[in-house]
Amino acid sequence: SGEGKQGHCNDGGLHQAICAVVNAGVSVVVAAGNQSTNADNRVPASFPEVITVSGITDSDGQPGGLGPKPCFGDRDDVFLNFSNFGASVDIAAPGGCIVSYNPAGGLETASGTSEASPHVAGAAAFFVGSQGSRPSPDQVRSWLLTQASRPQSTDGVGGDPDSGQSQSAATKKQIKKLKTFGDERGFFREIFRFNEPIFNEGVFKQWSHSRMIKDVVKAWHYHHVQYDWWYIPIGQVQTVLYDNRPESHTYKTKLVFNMGDSQRYGSGTHEVCVRIPPGVLHGCKVLSDEAHLFYITSETYNPQEEGRIPYDSDLVPHDWCQNALTVENDRRFFAPTSERKVLP
Fold first, then answer.
1. Are 275 and 200 in contact (CB under 8 A)?
2. For 186-199, what is each residue's pLDDT tens digit?
3. 3-class SS at 137?
4. For 106-260, where are the alpha helices, taking DSSP H only?
5. What superfamily would CATH give domain 9-160?
6. Does the domain made of 178-331 have the CATH classification 2.60.120.10?
7. Helices 137-147, 113-130: inter-axial angle, 10-degree rounding
8. What is the pLDDT of residues 166-176, one digit of tens each?
9. What pTM was computed for the model?
10. Does residue 111 contact residue 91 with C-beta atoms inside 8 Å?
11. Distance (Å, rounded) from C-alpha 18 to C-alpha 141?
């Protein structure tokens, strides 16, 4: 979060020049460096005035670590093993196998924090251009950090040396990638077993099936006691989870991903089973002509235990885009009357 930054504008040289730029109202985004060392000891990465960027892998343009093996590194959404780290780093961005211009003006694939930092500079430029009046560099930094995911959250990254908790363990418990075994007869796919991490709190009480047509949005739902486990066997849906539990280390983080048949809808769609704990707002939008949702719940249906927030509420930073088909229950608010289950 940039807490290890040091130095003063009156140090002269490069630091003084950067201070002059920032004082003029222009944000400066820099690469953390590729020495696999602490960025607190590197310049300009350790200057307090800059936004310092480390690098991660990203093979599908989506969060959650569900993409195929990237061309650099072993897994999707993990910290680049050569990227600098430390308290001076503000944010991370994709830096593995990025198509970039070379000095001769041609295109080539390169990896490094110099490939990661332009992603953040572009996001900063987008934010500046979207405002009526020019935001200050501090406001730009705050906006970037607000939009980013925490490293240990389910939509963050794994392998970060600065993170006390790896994302891979969190993701394993929330999302299970399903293996499919196919031949000329069709395929076999196991969903989950009772003794897997994703089903630790599982007590099977009800199994339900929902058929939905294109552009249907069902959101936002949440429970005080009930766990849900979702699976999309037919069709394609965009699924969104938003952690609204103040006691959670992933509080106010959002996870967005597409569920369904990757063979039909492409690598950005995933055959997964998703676990939704109590207190996590959840919703989905149908992207295909129709979709079928099979879900297991830990409780039988109890209207006193279920809550809803309008699908377009400002509480959740998500836009379902145009043509959202909703019903009255998705456009109104009501809170559960049962006591909420709080994380230990």
1. no
2. 999 989 887 777 88
3. helix
4. 113-130, 137-147, 167-174
5. Peptidase S8/S53 domain (3.40.50.200)
6. yes
7. 110
8. 444 445 567 88
9. 0.57
10. no
11. 15
